[in-house]
Amino acid sequence: MMHTDTVEFCGSQARVLKSWSQREQAHHERAARFTNDHIARRKAGVKHPVFDFLFEYYPIRAAHVSRWYPGVGVVLADAGTSIQAGWKFYRTQDGLTGVDVDRVRSQRLTTLTYIRDLLSKTVSNPAHFDCFGLHEWAMVYKASSVRHDLPLRLSSAETDAVVEQHSIRCTHFDAFRFFTPAAHSLNLHVLDRESQPDFEQQGCLHAGMDLYKWAAKLGPLVPGELWLDAFEVAWDARILDMEASPYDCRGFGLSVVAIETSAGKQEYVRRQREIAARAMVVRQGLLAVLDSVL
User: Fold this and answer.
1) What residues contact residue 204 under an 8 Å CB cut-off, 6+ apart?
2) Which domain holds residue 186?
3) Which range is least confidently modeled, 9-23, 28-42, 45-59, 86-100?
4) What pTM, to 2 d.p., does this model score?
5) Longest dimension (CA), the chain
6) Which of 93, 123, 128, 274 is the most exposed, fewest CB within 10 Å of its CB?
7) Residue 106 to residues 4, 194, 214, 250: CA-CA distances in angstroms?
8) Per its UniProt entry, which superkingdom is the organism in (predicted)?
9) CA distances from 18 to 27, 100, 217, 222, 259 (A)
10) CA proximity to 131, closest of 282, 245, 211, 249
């Protein structure tokens, strides 16, 4: 059991964790369920076209996933000689070790403000559940090559036909920017980086996946449990993203969500809503962290 008291640390009130090693160990064990296979593949020089994305596109190393932070407003007792004491943005004061919020705020104010604005807009913008994961299809539309080292489920002509038979309603710029030139004009809106906060919305699978990126950028401010919640949302979002894509991922243990069919659309929306609900809990947690700092 963790015993806590409240003290002043670096000019603000913080809770003291007097027994925290078990919490740290639990974090390491939870993270290992997702990182061990990736680490083993890297050592063996083996690529995984689905899950490597989470460690390369963002990019966040497996060691970062495993790192446990107590988070803002919490300090560790008897941690002056621990690994945490040497981490960036951490300091030890009167035998207590925790994140120096003033230092983070002074050095990363622009980033913190941008993330809070983006996440707040994502919450307030209308949610949409009518995209059916067609962004991945738009990325291979009329293309001479594909982005991932995977076979297509349908022929190139059939894949193009799926795009042409649907309305493309992508709201996420970092997906839209990978559309083929022929697919750009097919999207309901032409997206750009500057307008990203105006279009980001909580139903978007990639907006939920990106919470992992924003949590990583907030770093030591985010408690480890929330950090892994964000990672698990990204993990499950990535699975649905690829199962609903034009790629055949069955050779890597995934199934198929055939969004070109009515049943596939229904399954996609059901799972999309489930992930969006989990992502909203994480998003609200990150906003609470940001509000406590800003």
Assistant:
1) 128, 131, 171, 172
2) 101-293
3) 9-23
4) 0.93
5) 68
6) 274
7) 28, 24, 18, 48
8) Bacteria
9) 17, 19, 27, 19, 51
10) 245
DSSP line for 182-205:
HHHTTBSS---STTHHHH--TT-H
Q: Which two tokens stand for residue 198?
A: 């105006």
Of the candidates 109, 102, 178, the one whose C-alpha atom is nearest the C-alpha of residue 138 is: 178
Q: Quick check: is 148 in a domain?
A: yes
Q: Which amino acid is at 49?
A: P
Helix residue spans in the chain (DSSP H): 21-44, 53-56, 62-66, 101-124, 135-138, 156-164, 173-176, 181-184, 196-199, 205-209, 211-218, 224-243, 262-293
Tokens 């800003």 belong to 294
Tell which residue, 239, 228, 247, has the closest CA to residue 271: 239
pLDDT tens-digit readout, 77-132: 876 666 766 778 888 888 888 898 999 999 999 999 999 999 999 999 999 999 99
Please give the pLDDT value at position 81: 62
User: Are 210 and 230 contacting, i.e. CB atoms less than 8 angstroms apart?
Assistant: no
Q: Using alpha carbons, list the distances in angstroms from residue 223 to 79, 96, 229.
A: 16, 17, 10
